[in-house]
Amino acid sequence: MTRILIADDHDVVREGLRRLLEAQPNCQVVAEASDGRDAIAKVIETKPDIAVVDYSLPIINGLEVTRQIRARSPKTEVLIFTMHDNETIIETLLRAGARGYILKSDAKRYLLAAIDAVAAHKPFFSSQVTEELLISLTKQNKQEGTSLVLSHRERQIVQLVAEGHNNKQIGQQLNISRKTVETHRSNIMRKLSLSSPAALVRYAIRNKIVEA
Is residue 59 part of a domain? Predict the structure, then answer.
């Protein structure tokens, strides 16, 4: 018997999930929660096999709920059940320890299969989520691959930008003009398909040009 907790702030969603799950011979809903704090407390109390967690929970959101569940009830797997298909949210939740991720719009097609997979400690993602992950992975691979085509000078500039130096300071350190620094930075941003200094800093950390 798979013991399940449902955490969602909408009564109708929790009721619908309960009915669907309890119609299955191998599922038992042991608790419900309408906010993140209550979800964490009830997971600790009931130790379910699976926590079905919405990302947009009040008080404590689904990301922190996932982290807390994995830390305080490590045998409980987390299945994210949400309307959000943003690639950054998906990646962040998976890094926090979620085992599966499905969209509410995919519930009829995928929820029971997701429960079965996660109960067996296997990952499960609905097709749209899988597509978002592939897009994200492709972007990361593209960015990481471009680090090989940066020149030595460009890597120096990336490092100095990530360390917080402005164009004038970078020019002084490298003994080049401010205009030359600006040209290099423009070329770097184009090569890496980046749109902001913050994105350049994240790139530098991810590719170990600077330490986090």
Answer: yes
